[in-house]
Amino acid sequence: MANNLLIVQNLQTGYNGQRILGKVSFQAGGGELIGLIGPNGVGKSTLLRALRGLLPSTGQILIQGRELKSYTPQEIARVLAYLPQHSRIPFAFTVQEVVLMGRAPHLRWWQREGEQDLRIAKACMEYMAVTDLAAAPLNKLSGGQRQRVLLAKVLAQQTPLMLLDEPASGLDLFYQEELFRFCRELCQAGRTILLVVHDLALAARFCSRLLLLGGGTLLADDEPRAVLQPELLSRAYGVSVYVDFNPRTGHADVYTRAAPQRQTLLPLLLGGKP
Prior knowledge:
The chain has 274 residues and is of the alpha/beta class. The protein has helices at 44-51, 73-79, 95-100, 115-127, 143-156, 173-188, 200-206, 224-227, 230-237, 260-263, 266-269; strands at residues 4-15, 18-29, 33-37, 57-63, 66-67, 80-83, 161-164, 192-196, 209-214, 217-222, 241-245, 252-256. It has a 6-stranded mixed beta sheet, sandwiched between helices. A 4-stranded antiparallel beta sheet has the order 2-1-4-5, covered by helices on one side. Strands 11-12 form a two-stranded antiparallel ribbon.
């Protein structure tokens, strides 16, 4: 893959003395929308945190051909935007103030936001449909509204690489699909996005590639149809997984079947005898 924005070689990382991921290698070029999939606790969030430099790791992480460890905090914030799974902004900042925080990497420590920064922030708020909330305190918003504001903040950084950890969390059906369309549009314009996604049907529809994590390693790295195979998914998730692709739309229907032994426990749970 030519002109790789991100190169990861033999990455090993974890926390609290425990290794979560071992010898993970992949590359990402401009314009790719890459979904990270796999069961809970398998290391998807850990991978994003390591790529942001927030966890100790061994191996090699190159961004724009440069070692991650060689970047200063401000330099990395100009090339990589990261939205964690749980973002905390403790004070009652307004929506516009929060979105403008995304412009901080482009300013000197003594500078205030200029007209261009305000125009960028307003465009990001409009794109994420939160313009009417500009003067509202972030901590007074619903979870879905707050997530859209934080996405606008990340967008305002204007970085070539974006890492999004479960960005659709808390969003209703409409905004979930809008989020993925928004990500796809950004990638079509040349950005590269890695995002953690649990809805495999959405991942199949919108992502250009999927990375399937399982057992502390990378099990598959390919286009969605090649990764969303029953054998691979069953191995990763530890249950029997079935996949049907709609012949007309190409959309994937991914599902499991209830384990028979669980059915024998239902009467007891309802107050009867097993």
